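Technical appendix A lists one of the benchmark inputs used to test multi-chain prediction within the project. The record comprises two sequence entries:
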Amino acid sequence: MTEPVLPIGRVTSDAPFESSLEFTPQTRGTWTIAHTPMLVPGLLEIFVCPEGCLRGVVLSAAEDRLLDRFAMVTVKEEDAVDGDMEKLFYEGVCDILDAMETLPPCVMVFTSCVHHFTAIDLPYVMTHLRKRYPQVDWIENYMNCTMRQSKLHYEEVTARQWYAPLGNVEKDPDQVDIIGNYFALDPDSEIYSLLSDQKIYDLPLCETYAEYKEMAHAKYLIYNMPVAKEAARDLQARNGQIPIYIPYTWSMKEIEADLDRLADTLGIQRKDFSRQKELAEKALRKTARLLHGRAVQIDYSATPRPLELACLLLEHGMNVTTVYSDAVLPGEQDALQRLRVLAPEMELRAAVHYRCRLWHDLDPDCLAIGQKATYYSGTRHFVNMVANDGLYGYTGIRKLCEQMQDALFYEKDPAMIEIKAKGCFG
Amino acid sequence: MKKATKKTVNEAADWAGANSALYELGGLVIVHDASGCNSTYATHDEPRWDQIPSLMFISALTEYDAILGNDQKLIDQVVEAAEELEPRFIALYGSPIATVMGTDFIGIAREIETITGIPAFGLKTSGMNSYIHGASQAYQMLVKRFVKPSDHHTGINLLGVTPLDHYGSAVHLRRFGAAHGMVSCWSMGCIWQEITDAGQAAVNVVVSADGLAAAEEMEERFGIPYCVGVPIGTAGSKAMSELIEHKKGFLHSRKPGHRIVLIGEPVQMHTLAWVLEQRGWDSFRVVSASEQHVGNMVQTEFEEEIAKAAADAEIVIADPLLRPICPPQARFIALPRVAYSGRMYLNEIPDLVEEAGDAWLEANQL
């Protein structure tokens, strides 16, 4: 059995750790399938699942004061075996909608793994629901966490389904959508600066359902998270919208190339961001000086490119000792090769392997970026960053450095990493 | 339609009950599921997760394991972990997908025990029953596998003490138990030897429905009688002491009705009804999701039926998340439970035992 910790110099594959029993660290800031659809204003979630599966999603909604946008239909053992699942599904959903004074503009229904394996005829159910409630936009979604090795991960499917009601309408060449994030892209970022003459729609900023539907008019879509690739593909196929992948990168070289590519694709003038780059460099140097060799740990829940972030910080004199990630994530292969030369002894640690249960207070003096790094290190000096927090580019680097400096001087209560879905409130 | 829920939540599921029962006992516990079960349990149903270490894991089941019935992968992973972690026992049970797959946890456990020499057992959970169903099986299995018979009997066992139902009262329950020569407390604050020595007790005290099956098992195996109830308030505590002395009895009200509706774990609610009766109240209805029937109760987990059962109530005592479906004219008295609202009202879960229970009753004008 491979140890769940390896010096990065010995990591030669994208899946360096063997599969095992898994542990759940008490880090809850990432958004779940119950939280992300709430970004669509007015959407009602209806989960049709066994009670064990419902427990997590319904309490997520309750904790975030979102129970008015949540309903459920309980699947019992007899439903799983008697072949009447379609009837339960249809009648349960109808019962919920018929009890409402006003119908929601959009309903997202969720199946669970059980439906997949008992082969429910979901298209049949959806056809009849659409017929009965034609004024509602219906979206199917699938809480089937068992599908871990399929071509599409269920999180990619969910990200795609957020945009399912967007139809093929007339396109506005001056409108750009940002898709796939649960935090709004930082308006101070170079992307916004570059697109100053464009109309920008970002799902977390949509306040009404009508505003959300306006997203269908964008000619271009920008996506930053790899999990949004499927959403981009689908919108291109259905609506002819043109996706542009501008990843949440920490590589200065890639930021420059991506911004130029974005400008060229949109047919707009490139901009000079050397001032922003200089400020980022200055912030990095200052942070390194203040850290004075103090260890830094990073994890994959903070950013989709933790290895790249490690490279950036190491190249600017910071002592990154550990990155927590169960795999080498998409887009990180170059960073892996650089790290194997730059810091071959830096540790790559798994985050959910059963042996992680035995990790406590690994380095309480370190500065952590991300909740899993915070949890395992035991530090009170941390940047509570989740999914990049919308930070992008040189400005993103500068702002992260400022948060690191703040974390260095001011302790935080680690209990905050147990709050589910950072920033999602009803 | 009864299975549709529009305003409230649902109770913790069977595997969470089993987890809660086994949590502090030093076993390696595996829920056969993809990922969500453990995360849900650790976040919402287990307040001890960060305070007390445990060896509770998920099997990380994938679709290929499900389709191909890859039990060998599960066996290999459990054996590897067990050989490294050296647990006292190994427990395996599952989620809805394992049920649909027809996973034979009993057979798999037998094989693991043969390989490792560590006692192993499987339970039948499906994620489609209440936590009482799961905790009950776990406790009963502990009796079958680990409790040693004894020639002499003295003192009591407290059965059914998990944070799901007794988060606020657990410490005080143990103190009450100690005053009655407690042999074991199943299973908060419990050391392993208490479990194996439980056969020495003269009487079992069932403080929640999930302890009933274990009590019946011990009666059958060792001839240990049991009584049912919780020492709520001074009156309840005195009454329970008498039941313990007589080695039988069930503390519950004999004034059925619908003016006061108590929704929650049935043993606790029946005892509370009895206590209220002593204080001059009458006309009680207990409503519970427990599949284990305890006394006269309305058994349901569904919002529509709970609302119907409480429709004519003048007073409702229930978890705060049930307030939206209770009649607006009724006085609502919040009594949070981890088994229902999870960690949402953790700091508001009262201690109901002995004089602390009196204080709660006074504060709520009961």
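Residues 151-246 of chain B form a domain with the Rossmann fold fold (CATH 3.40.50.1980). Residues 131-146 of chain B form the longest helix (16 residues). Comparable benchmark entries are summarised in Table A2.
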